[in-house]
Each structure stands twice: as C-alpha cells, then as structure tokens.
Amino acid sequence: MAQEKRKPRTVEDVLPPDGGWGWMIVAGCFMVTVCTRAVTRCISIFFVEFQMHFGHDYSGTAWIHSIVDCTTMLCAPLGSFIGNRFSCRVAVILGGLLASTGLVLSSLATSLEYLYLTLGVLTGVGFALCYTPAIAMVGVYFSERKALAYGIAMSGSGIGTFILAPVVQLLIDYYSWRGALLILGGFASNLCVCGAVLRPIIRKEDVDEARPLPVDSECGYNIKAPLEKLPHDKAESKRCSSSSSSSSSSSSSTSSSSSLRCFQSLHEYRFLLMPDFMVLAGSFLFLANGCSLPFVYLVPYALDVGVSHRQAAFLMSILGVIDIVGNITFGWLTDRRWLKQHRNLCYIFALGMEGLCCLFLPLLRSFALLVPFSVLYGYFDGAYVALIPVVTSDVVGTPYLSSALGVVYFLHAIPYLLSPPIGGWLVDTTGTYTATFFLSGFSLISSSLLLCTVAMIRRCQRCLHRDAPGAQLPLDDPCDSKQPDFYITKNKDMMITDTAPTS
Questions:
Q1: What is the chain's pLDDT, residue by residue, as a tens digit (503 residues)?
Q2: Would you say 124 and 68 are in contact if contact means Cβ atoms under 8 Å apart?
Q3: How many CA atoms are closer than 13 Å to the CA of 480, on its beta-carbon side?
Q4: pTM of the model
Q5: How many Å apart are CA 118 and CA 1, to the nearest integer?
Q6: CB 6 within 8 A of CB 499
Q7: How far is CA 391 from CA 23, 86, 281, 448, in A?
Q8: Cβ neighbourhood burial of 338 (10 Å; 0-12, 13-18, 19+)
Q9: How far from the centroid of its chain's Cα atoms is residue 441's Cα?
C-alpha cells in the first residue's frame, strides 16, 4: 500500500512573490496611508477654525489631533488581532466604515468635547484597523524588494498631504469646516475599496494542511522541520493536546490543530523578549514624542509670524511632496546590496537630521525661510517612516511582522496623546513656539542617539571578542539568532499551502 509522502520543501515554493499582485497590495496600502495618515495631518489645518468657533486655547484644541493620533496607535494591536484572526480585508473594510462615520458625525459637532469623541476616538479606531494590517500585507508579498515596496506604499502620506492640504483649505473657504469634514468622510470611505484589494496570498496544490512560512530570505535562512518534529516543543505539544488525544483519526486531527493553536498563542509575541527589540521600542518612545509636533504647530507658527493662510497650507503641501521623495529614494537606496546591511544606520541618520531641522525652526520667521525647513523635514520624515517596518522586520523577522508592528505603533500612542497638548501648554505659557520645537528636536535626537549608542557598544564588543585569544567570532548577520525558524499561522492573508501526496 502506497504511503503518502510530502514533497521536499524548497525556498522557491514559499518565498513571497516580490511582484505580481504584490504591486496591487502596495497600491492598496498607498491609498490606506493617504486616507489615514494624510487626513490626520490635515486636521491641523482645522486648528484655527476650531479655536475660533469653540473659543478654546491652544492646548484644549490640540487635544483633537492628539486623540486621533493616540487612538490610531493605541488600537494598532487590535488591528493586528483582527487581521490575524480573520483577514486583513475584514480589518480594513471595518476600519473604513468606522473612520468614515466618525468624520461625517464630526461635521455635526456642537462642542469641542463632541469632536474628541467622534473625530478623535471613532475616527482614530477606524484608522487603526486599517493601518497596521495594510502595512503588514506588504511585508508578506515582498522580501528582496521590501524597502522599495514600503517606500512606495508609505509615500501615500506625503502625496496625500501635498494634495489634501490645499484642497482642505479650499473646502473650508467654500463650505466651512463642517462641509470640509463631511467631504473628508466620503473620501475616507474609499478605505473599504482598499480593503477589497488586499487579496490573501494562497498557493496550493492540495488543501490538506498549512505549511510553515519561511523566514525572510534576506537573512538566508533555510526551511526547518515542521512543528510537530521539533524536540523543544514536544512537551508543550503534549500539554496542549492531552485532553483530545485518541486512537481515532478524527481525534488525532483535533489534537494536531490544538497543538498549532497553542503554539501560535505562546509564540506570537515572543519577539518582545529580544534585547534588540527592547532598544528599538525605547527609541520609538522618543521618536513619537517629537515627530508629531511640527505637523500640529507648523501652520499656526507660520500664521503667527505673518504668513498668509494659503501660504501656510502650501508649506504643508511642500512637506508632503518632499516626504514622497524621502519615502521612495531611501527605500530604493536601502535595497541596494551595499546599503542593505546598513539600514539601521540610515534610519539613525534620518532621525538625527530631522531633529536638527526642528531645533533651527524658531529662527525661521518668513515664508521664504520656512520653505527650506519643509523640504528638509519632509525628506527625512519620509525616509525614516519608510524604514520603520523594514527595520522592525530586520529585528523580529517577517513571520512576526504583523504583531510587531501592532506593538510598535502602540508605543506611539501615549506620546502622540501627550506631546501636542504639552506643546500647546508651552506656547500658552511662554508666548512663543520656541520651547515646543526644541522639545520636538531634542526628542528626535535622543531617539537617534539611543540607537547609535547601542550600535557602537555592539561594534566594540565584537572588536574585543575578535581580539581575544581563541575566541570564536560572533555572527555579523543581524538576522542570526533573532528570527524564528518557522511560523505557522491561521491568518488567511498569510497562509501558504503547497503540499501534495506522492506514492
């Protein structure tokens, strides 16, 4: 009697396609970033309108932008959870409905507290359900050209800001801020269309069982043994399946699926214990504390120094279009063979330069001087934003990317919530924007210095270890001993099945 044997697994069978429908995934993620991050940035254009209509000070009005950003990042793990348990399509379509509803209801606002709930919480939750799953899907479809794909996808925030900033100002001029919010609500409903584009990546010859996903091919890992044959997971497998073990074939199948579910739940957030991820998480806290302040206060600062409303909105447009250049050029450059292993240094450099731009901003008191700031800040902002998913993937590995991005954006939540009101309080207290922009600059530089210090310590340790007599050289590949050997998932958007019985 012929016995069923599994085909030998090769890397080519399971590697991400690096093209094909993947470019449609990039286009979908691009539109998601337009409808989420660009719309969030354009909320600062409503800043003066809200302040005049409701009669609140800077810090009170700044809470709107803070709550949107905070809720988007705070609920990022929820977006990852829905994307992993159901599908990225479900998460993005549901998020689009919530975001559109929140913006439409905001057009009916009668108080600032009403806007906190509708524009801040409801719209923010909708953006959270869309943002993380869409970004994670790009990492599933791309490996060798991952940085370029992310650069194009993340450039949506820049292009969207460039187009939406003057459009939103025109909408406010013609239809008031209520009409502008109503139209933005209709625009945000396009997130549902973006969700429909996120087609699951499923390749199969026989739908018998899911195969493990390989690790990122950039790190050169081979496919390891399947889960049930790993010795270090035997005890856990027995413990998870003991209640359903039986001699019958149906009971054996139930036991196997129970083992996989138990393994997934135990290892889904295993990356949290990685030292490199802990350092990266600390740098994200400093980053989030500083990066949102220029977007919130650039337009009010420009108006304060005598720039017209149209020119102030145009500064946001310039920042947005140069953001695109930073997204794509840094993504393309860091995909080159000679820079791929130095992505972390490129990310550190972009953060440091962005911080320096903020420190010099209080010296720029005319439209002609604020244009170079928008160019430089927009370029380096686009550069580091495109590298966040790539650097995170290099640290934790592609299999953990969706969950890791949920944690990464979750870490942005509290700083996003607190930094704009703190910046507004500094403006109310000092009467100038200098302290606010200094807070932004020093936070960004601190994020850069933290990563740079750790990188230098690691390099010194490798040099000392190499000079020690009889010492074995440590692995230089940052992917070694960090990424898992395999990952089994029930996520419909990440499942790859390709098994065929042979006699």
A1: 444 444 444 333 445 667 778 889 999 999 998 999 888 888 878 888 888 888 777 777 878 888 888 888 888 888 888 887 888 889 999 999 999 999 999 999 888 889 999 999 999 999 999 988 898 888 888 877 777 888 888 888 778 877 888 899 899 989 999 999 999 999 999 999 989 888 877 544 333 433 433 444 443 333 333 333 344 444 444 444 444 444 444 444 445 555 555 455 556 677 788 888 889 889 999 998 888 888 888 988 999 898 988 888 888 878 878 888 888 887 788 777 777 777 888 889 999 999 999 999 999 989 999 999 999 998 898 888 888 888 888 888 777 777 888 888 888 888 877 888 888 889 988 989 999 999 999 999 999 999 998 888 888 877 887 766 655 554 444 444 344 333 333 444 444 444 444 44
A2: yes
A3: 5
A4: 0.65
A5: 66
A6: yes
A7: 21, 26, 12, 14
A8: exposed
A9: 22
Burial class (CB in 10 A: 0-12, 13-18, 19+), 440: buried
d(CA 103, CA 117): 11
Residue found by looking up tokens 């939540």 in the block = 413
Nearest Cα neighbor of 405 from 193, 133, 92 is 133
Instruction: Give yes or no for a contact between 45 and 382, defined as CB atoms under 8 angstroms apart.
Output: no
Q: Which residue type, as a one-letter code, is found at position 165?
A: A
With CA atoms as reference, report the closest residue to 437 among 223, 320, 291, 231: 291
Q: Can you give the length of the chain in residues? A: 503
d(Cα 22, Cα 24) in Å, to the nearest integer?
A: 5
Q: Which residues contact 446 (CB under 8 A, 6 or more apart)?
A: 286
Q: Which two tokens stand for residue 215?
A: 């690790």
Q: Which of 406, 389, 479 is nearest to 138 (CA)?
A: 389
Tokens linked to 130: 């869309």
Residue 481 and residue 485: Cα distance in Å, rounded? 9
Q: How many Å separate Cα 379 from the centre of its chain?
A: 18
Chain CA centroid to CA 477, Å? 24
Question: Residue 497 and residue 488: Cα distance in Å, rounded?
Answer: 11
Is residue 180 a contact partner of residue 171, using CB atoms and an 8 Å limit?
Answer: yes
Largest Cα span, the chain:
87
Closest listed residue to residue 75, CA positions, set 417, 406, 403: 406
Task: Return the closest-CA partner of residue 191 out of 43, 75, 79, 73.
Answer: 79
